Amino acid sequence: MGWSNDTDLQNIDCGILENHELLSTDIEALSSEECFKIGVCAYKNQNYSEAYAFLLSAHLKGYDKSASFQKFFAASKLAVDSINELARKNTYLKNQIQATHHLLGSSATLIENQAQPGDYQSSTQQDLLNYLFLVFAISGIFLAAKLLKNHKNVNTHNIFLAIFLFGVSIMLLELSVYWIQDFNYTPKEFFYHIHFFLWAPSLYLYIRKKLNITSNGSTLKITKHYGVFVFFCLLLLIHINITDGLNSPLSPSNNVAFIIQNAYLKFIHSTLYLIMLFRLYKEHRNSLNFSNKKWFVLAISFLAAIILIVLSRALFAEIPSFNYISKYIGAILLSLFIGVCAIMLFIQPEILTKTEALKPKPKVKYKNSGLTEDMIETLREQLLKLIENEKVYLDNTITLEKLAKSLNTDRYSLSQVINQEFGKNFYEFINDFRVQEAINIIEKNDYQIDLITDLIYESGFNNKVSFYKAFKKRKGMTPSQYIKEQKSEIIVNG
């Protein structure tokens, strides 16, 4: 994209704007358009801090009419972040030199500004943390290699876990190498920017394969999952090899960089996989054992936490310090995850590496039923109300058809409600209330029952065999034994 393609840029005359004029201009007194024009001129003169200040002011004042504004704004912010990072590195090196001279007994006059003890202590602590990140990163790479070596021929899902763990470790490795001053690692573009498009598909495929869920054309589907990652790999290669127009935010190189670094794209892509993972877990959680359930929750929670960090980086991109803080929070999270995986792999490797044997799902008996959830709930309430108010179970000639007629429904719908809501057939359901009625009669008569035969018909049963069978099934004893036991308890407690 050329400069001449934007009319707003054509109308900007930067010749009258010198550096001292930019510094002395009162931003509050300028309009949003004037702030934009001065910001563009400042950027062209490589005064990136002033450019960012004026462009930010234009943004806050509501300037959004120029298609090139976002490009200039993003480019100036990136330049300011780079300057701040370089300044931090220089401060660190200066403190290290000062500390070295101090240890060697050199005169303080050799250094213009002697390092303060607090600054040196802070730098040392930060350096130790960076080396700790490096250790975790290398450990994660070894863990991924161990998974591939020991388990790739046993269960293919471990390949996806290894890819996921390798991607996490490489990102932590790149961050730690960049932060550690001794490596002097300053890439044109960070490789970890495209790792987000590798993690989520790998974790999804790992859990899907671990659950032993297969589908037709699996190889083609796997390729599709990694298609976005491959696309961003190509973009990264293009960006690294483009050298023209580096001073222009509208150059092809900066356009590609804007896409690669876009946090919203990472957020949308990862969130889609998070939703699929959550649905997968919700569908099969009742079939998982306790250990695998905890592991799946941990892995999905880790991805969710990373997504939150990505979203926060997108929302607070205008705060320079947040860029640095969010990366450190992410590095700590990556280190913790690698540490947990290492512990699990050596203590309980089967949780990570073995395929989960899912319990078969029960067949849906009423799959083609015309009853909705609301209809079932309504019929259930009507049934219980009829049982409670009219005690239809005391009728020893009651049948499913007669009860359905009383409820103004058909026998099939009533049978479904009893089976589905109470887990019993019609006669088991009715006998529950009859046995409870017999117990109520026994208690009402202070356990003084002369003839068990009278109890049979009073509770709705029509023969001794069915009464004794139903009573013993629910109470574990015959009616006579129950009465005797209750009398004994009354004597003991009395």
Topology:
Elements (H helix, E strand, L loop, with lengths): L6 H4 L8 H6 L7 H13 L3 H13 L8 H35 L13 H35 L5 H23 L16 H15 L7 H8 L1 H15 L10 H9 L2 H22 L5 H26 L4 H28 L1 H5 L19 H18 L9 H7 L4 H12 L3 H19 L7 H7 L5 H12 L3 H15 L1
Helix pairs in contact: 3-4, 4-5, 6-7, 6-14, 7-8, 7-14, 8-12, 8-13, 10-11, 12-13, 13-14, 16-18, 17-18, 19-21
Pfam families: HTH_18
InterPro entries: Homeodomain-like_sf, HTH_AraC, HTH_AraC-typ_CS
Protein name: AraC-type DNA-binding protein
> Per the principal axes of the C-alpha atoms, what is the gross shape?
elongated
Instruction: Please report the first level of CATH classification, the CATH class of the largest domain.
Output: Mainly Alpha
Class of secondary structure makeup:
mainly alpha
Count of distinct strands? 0
Biggest pleated-sheet summary: none
H/E topology pattern: HHHHHHHHHHHHHHHHHHHHHH
CATH topology group of the largest domain: Rhopdopsin 7-helix transmembrane proteins
Total count of helical runs of at least 4 residues: 22
Uncertain regions: pLDDT < 50 for 5+ in a row? 1-7, 97-118
As for the number of domains, it is 3
Mean pLDDT: 78
